[in-house]
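Can't paste images in this forum, so I'm doing it all in text. The chain is below; anyone willing to post the predicted structure tokens underneath?
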Amino acid sequence: MIPYTVMLIVPTGIGAAIGGYAGDALPTAKAISQVCDRLITHPNVMNGAQLYWNLPNTLYTEGYALDQFAAGHWNLRPVHQNKIGLLIDSGTEPDLIARHLQAADAARATLGLTLTDYVLTDEPLNVGIQTAESGATWGTIGNPDSLLRAADKLINQAGATAIAVVARFPEDLPENALHDYRHGQGVDPLAGAEAVISHLIVRHFKIPCAHAPALSPLELDIGISPKSAAEELGHTFLPCVLVGLSRAPQFVQANLMETNLRQANSFDRPQLTDIHRNQVNALVLPESACGGSALLHLSQTSTQIITVRENTSRMQVTPEDLGIRSISVNSYLEAIGVLVAHRSGISPAALSPKIDRIRCL
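Text version of the structure:
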């Protein structure tokens, strides 16, 4: 039986109504994981600060790696366990560093995760945050070389097979932006910068990576939205990142030429368990957020594209704008029904009360 594989994407930093907050797309991922054999998704969907849920059939895959996978450049290799290296921004205050080290030790003692010794960057990373007129966010790193040197140390000296980054984020966020986000109305002001950090490490080292921002605790606000409440539970966002990375798939070069295949080491050689893009049966994503690389690549394959109207965002790029054919549904509940029909080999149109006559081409 061929495994039925679904990819679920909610782009980061675009104010998605579902998936734009603190792990609020996790219930969607949990539900979809029950109607497929394999679910491929990314940290923005799965991360809920100190809240997380282990989905055994779900591949926690960083966004840059998802794009490379969808382009056919990389394959995903499921693993039993990763050895996680913890990389901490040296610009973080000692008390905050101690809180994150306690979270790491708790993950080792309570969840049984495998971590290496941690590394401090040799220079502060100096993360910056930028906001577009649309409200979408992105970020900058003042000392990217320091980030890469620290990651290299974890990989080559400590033997890390995945990297968790804790970077100190600026506190001078626009007050209205933070207020709106905490009340379930705005864009996550940190998400864009987080993506830049993980993208850089994944692109350079071809290794799983995810990020947890270091921030001072916020003042109590009894009116915050349930969608943002996971971030109010403690001093760190690290636990969900460590859980996700513990079994995140490794990335291997796809389509090695025969000459290179003979020279490749044992890890790079193809394995039967490797997942390649042509095995993705369906892609589910917000209907207004269709400008991403993964969709553009998978639209050239047999993957069934399913777009969700209800998950609005600050982006305004639809499948129609790009000439991409998709099944448009109102909600994720409806998308799950389409996935069940698609997996069963049933046309969704056959489940409607009226079916048009077949026409001559």
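The mean pLDDT is 90. The CA atoms of residues 2 and 314 lie 37 Å apart.
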